[in-house]
From TrEMBL, chain A:
The protein's name in its UniProt record: Phosphate transport system permease protein PstA
Organism for this UniProt entry: Methylocapsa palsarum
GO cellular component, one term: plasma membrane
Alphabetized CDD domains for the sequence: TM_PBP2
Top-rank taxon, per record: Bacteria
Automatic annotation (TrEMBL), chain B:
Membership in a protein family: Belongs to the binding-protein-dependent transport system permease family. CysTW subfamily.
Main location, first listed in the record: membrane
The keyword Transmembrane belongs to this UniProt entry's keyword annotation: yes
Positions of transmembrane segments: 28-48, 88-109, 129-149, 175-198, 219-240, 289-314
Entry keyword Nucleotide-binding: no
Lineage top rank: taxon: Bacteria
Organism, scientific name: Methylocapsa palsarum
One of the Pfam families matching this protein, by short name: BPD_transp_1
GO CC annotation, single: plasma membrane
Protein name per UniProt: Phosphate transport system permease protein
Membrane topology value: Multi-pass membrane protein
Domain annotation ABC transmembrane type-1: ranges: 84-308
Signal sequence annotation: none
Length: 301, 322
């Protein structure tokens, strides 16, 4: 409030001199503060870009050095062995993410249809929406703890299936919320037209809402997949790790993220190099999904 | 029941739903409702399952668990005060750094500092930062951040070691590298939500400030940021929530040492990192204690996230009404 009165006062005193001084004075304290703050903002923004540049540089230089066919086809090396690859880790990541998608996407889409179309304001919808928002901020390691208690103890073994369930817990709220948002973007008049022709709500959902919202839904799904592909905390004690190819989803499996975690603390140069190469592959997978989602998700309505 | 407008045999496109379509509709309605109910049930099941597993530890240790400092699996003596301290301390420091940079970037990208096309590219770069997996940041932290900050940190310890923040040397993993990486990881969250909040500020408010002769930064700091303060605050709260639950980068960088220290260079531990490093090899009494620790982490993040989400919903409603 004091600022406002100060300006008013300044206005009055200038009015008395009949000629308000509107010229820009570069040496006025507030003009100099403006320049300094602008310079500061440029500096901070540049600082914010440094980590990304550094990470990408390290990935390309350190990880790129091991980017060959052996990397994709061989198994991880033991202690003092040279060479080796991360084939089973790539396989494990694809399998666990596949299981997670198969479990979470159908449930999430059904929930989103309920939230966006059937009963947007019912108690169930309000509660489910709120809990989804809270779940998106849920620490991913707790998904691992939960699935350990709910699945691993029940099955009596660590498994790719348990890892997939843990990732599904993380995907479910994200996909639900983005799919609900996408369905809400479909213009109401299109839905009204369908209802006016005698469609049931279900027919409206299947023939109007879903086809129209599909690009945005696919974007949300791809982003969620990209996010869980890079997750490691939920896999630590659900999928565990394995040095061999995966033959059944009831076995423990390797994954790229856990391989990076395990190898990063090893005292062997070979393993560290493989950790960088695995990081490069993982980041490439994640970024490909991200870029893909941008192309598909161009607004079409 | 329904009034029949359509003359049988006519070619009208609109007609009331048939009985079959109606039955399909009711069935699908209940299936969709089931999807929504699964989300609610899942949250309840998570609380029940982790709570149930932690129950024996809660019975034996009770509230002492929260203030004890030891973690001794052999003697069955568990306490998580150092982890709670490390979680809050590292997250607050990361929030101070990452929050400041994130909000500055949000202002930088929304207030016409850059031509729109370059602003879009910069925004994409920051979003890419959010896409990089946590363990890759951990690996980068081990091989880039630690060697980079070590000489400076040890110089500060030698010359300013009497200040508690610099009271130990950085021998490798420690709080400082963990905080640096953590602040980079929450930066995109804070920047994205703050950008949305600033974007909601009506343009005419900014024009009014300029019209009164405000400089660009006077308009930003005295008009736009205060107007968007609710959204920016919730960005900070949600960023804080992310920092609290972040696991892998911390498990790789913080040193996993159960001590309480103000020093930025000493190793520490967090609740999530404790779970990550001890859970896989833990036997029974320790596993229950870890479940108890998970419950504490769940409670802390739940409170922070519910708080942040509520502020976000509340302020966006307020701005929408204005």
């Amino acid at each position: 409030m004091s600022k406002v009165s100060q300006y008013q006062d300044g206005g009055i005193s200038r009015a008395r001199s009949f000629a308000p001084d509107l010229r820009h004075n570069a040496f006025e304290a507030r003009a100099m503060a403006n320049v300094l703050l602008t310079a500061g903002a440029w500096f901070v923004a540049a600082l914010g870009a440094v980590p990304l540049v550094s990470v990408i540089y390290m990935l390309v230089v350190k990880g790129g050095a091991r980017l060959n066919t052996e990397l994709f086809t061989e198994l991880p090396p033991a202690g003092f062995e040279m060479g080796g690859g991360i084939g089973n880790a790539i396989q494990g990541t694809l399998v666990t993410v596949g299981i997670a998608s198969a479990i979470s996407i159908p449930i999430a889409l059904l929930a989103a249809i309920y939230l966006a179309e059937f009963r947007p304001n019912s108690n169930i919808a309000v509660a489910a929406r709120f809990l989804s928002k809270v779940l998106t901020g849920f620490p991913s390691i707790l998904a691992g703890v939960f699935v350990y208690a709910a699945v691993v103890l029940l099955m009596g073994t660590y498994s790719a299936l348990a890892g997939g369930v843990a990732l599904a817990v993380l995907m479910l709220p994200t996909v639900t919320l983005t799919a609900e948002g996408a369905m809400r973007m479909v213009p109401q008049r299109m839905k009204d037209a369908a209802i006016g022709m005698g469609c049931t709500k279900t027919q409206v959902v299947w023939s109007v809402t879903l086809p129209t919202a599909l690009p945005s839904i696919v974007t949300g799904v791809i982003l969620a997949v990209a996010r869980v592909a890079g997750e490691s905390a939920p896999l630590l004690f659900t999928a565990l790790f394995s040095n061999y190819w995966l033959r059944s989803v009831k076995e423990p499996t390797a994954s790229l993220s856990i391989l990076i975690y395990n190898f990063s603390s090893m005292p062997f140069e070979n393993q560290i190099e493989l950790a960088w190469a695995a990081s490069l592959v993982l980041v490439l997978i994640v970024l490909t999904f991200n870029i893909l989602s941008r192309f598909i998700g161009r607004p079409q309505v | 029941m329904s009034v029949q407008f359509v003359v049988p045999g006519s070619k009208s496109v609109s007609r009331p739903p048939s009985v079959a379509a109606y039955l399909v509709d009711r069935t699908f309605f209940f299936i969709a409702a089931l999807g929504a109910l699964i989300i609610i049930a899942l949250v309840a099941y998570i609380l029940w399952e982790i709570g149930g597993q932690a129950l024996p530890a809660i019975r034996t240790s009770g509230a002492k668990f929260l203030i004890n400092t030891g973690w001794d699996a052999q003697r069955g003596n568990f306490g998580i005060l150092p982890q709670i301290w490390g979680t809050l301390y590292s997250s607050l420091l990361a929030l101070a750094i990452g929050g400041f940079i994130g909000i500055t970037i949000a202002i930088f990208l929304t207030q016409d500092f850059l031509p729109p096309r370059i602003a879009v590219i910069f925004r994409t770069l920051i979003e890419m930062l959010a896409a990089i997996p946590s363990v890759v940041f951990g690996l980068w932290g081990i091989f880039v951040v630690i060697p980079f900050v070590r000489p400076g940190a040890n110089w500060l310890f030698e010359h300013a070691g009497f200040i508690p923040f610099f009271g130990s040397s950085l021998s490798g993993p420690g709080l400082l590298p963990a905080v640096i990486v953590l602040s980079i990881m929450i930066l995109p969250t804070v920047a994205a939500i703050s950008q949305d909040a600033i974007g909601l500020v009506p343009y005419k408010i900014k024009e009014a400030a300029y019209g009164m002769g405000a400089t660009r930064w006077e308009a930003i700091l005295k008009v736009i940021v205060p107007t968007a303060s609710g959204g920016i605050f919730s960005a900070l709260v949600l960023g804080f929530g992310r920092a609290l639950g972040e696991t892998m980068a911390l498990a790789m960088l913080i040193g996993n040492s159960n001590q309480i220290s103000l020093s930025l260079f000493s190793p520490a531990n967090t609740l999530a990192a404790l779970l990550a490093s001890n859970f896989p090899e833990a036997a029974q009494p320790e596993r229950q204690a870890l479940m108890y620790a998970a419950l504490v982490l769940l409670a802390i993040t739940l409170v922070v996230n519910v708080f942040g989400t509520l502020i976000l919903i509340w302020t966006s409603q307020k701005v929408a009404k204005a």
